[in-house]
Design brief:
alpha+beta, Aminopeptidase, 9-stranded mixed sheet, binds coenzyme A
């Protein structure tokens, strides 16, 4: 079976992350920056891999701060965009936030980044504010997006539905089966996307 594997990034994969970061953002974080995320128990840094080539096609990160999941970065390789991979990473980050007991998720996004804003809106993020001239390179504003209710009783079902829909979408668009290889969410076995991580 052709699998697309989402797992926690480890130190030996960080060169690939830095390369994809350069391609998508022009070099936002350094290798040392990503290493700090790998080392921190307050961070989740997830990657999506094509297993046969071991190609990293996407990654995302959140910081757990008090009761909030701050999504710090999310990117999909330009040649693999619009196939559901971005939403697979976002849903995994929201799963993780839920598992960590966090109440809400937040992030900053360039006001002109319509594709990212559309992605976040699709998963219930709303605009909570604007940081003027937040990005030093262009002087562009950031929108602050926010999503609450991560501990609402129905949110676990919502996440399971999103995972199933995302898995179906990816299979239709790529022919790959999405697999969440996050043993700490299950009983030590990789959980197929759409299955319960509990
Ligand atoms: C934003 C990004 C991660 C989206 O990843 P992706 O894999 O292409 O997105 P998906 O295929 O999972 O799309 C999911 C949803 O996002 C929205 N979306 C994604 N790309 C879009 C586009 N070009 N135009 C409009 N909506 C878009 C849509 O709502 C889409 O759902 P739909 O297909 O049902 O319409 C990707 O474009 C990217 O890496 N951009 C460069 C880095 C970046 O800007 N990251 C965000 C920083 S906050």
């Amino acid at each position: 079976m052709n699998l697309l594997i989402l797992n926690r990034l480890t130190a030996e994969k960080l060169n690939a992350v830095v390369e994809l970061d350069r391609l998508c953002f022009g070099g936002l974080w350094t290798l040392e920056g990503y290493q700090r995320e790998v080392d921190s128990s307050h961070s989740d840094l997830f990657g999506l891999f094509l297993p046969f080539s071991s190609l990293l096609v996407g990654f995302g990160c959140l910081w757990s701060i008090v009761d909030e999941a701050h999504i710090t970065i999310l990117a999909v390789h330009p040649e693999h965009q619009r196939q559901g991979l971005g939403q697979a990473i976002l849903v995994a980050l929201l799963w993780s936030a839920n598992q960590r007991g966090l109440e809400r998720a937040s992030l900053e996004v360039r006001a002109s980044n319509e594709s990212a804003i559309a992605l976040y809106q699709k998963f219930g993020f709303k605009t909570a504010g604007r940081r003027r001239k937040y990005y030093q390179d262009t002087g562009e504003d950031a929108l602050i997006l926010w999503r609450g209710d991560l501990q609402a009783p129905e949110f676990t079902n919502t996440l399971a539905t999103w995972q199933q829909e995302t898995s179906d979408l990816i299979f239709q668009s790529t022919g790959y089966q999405l697999q969440l290889d996050l043993p700490e969410w299950g009983a030590g076995e990789p959980a197929p996307c759409g299955g319960s991580p509990h």
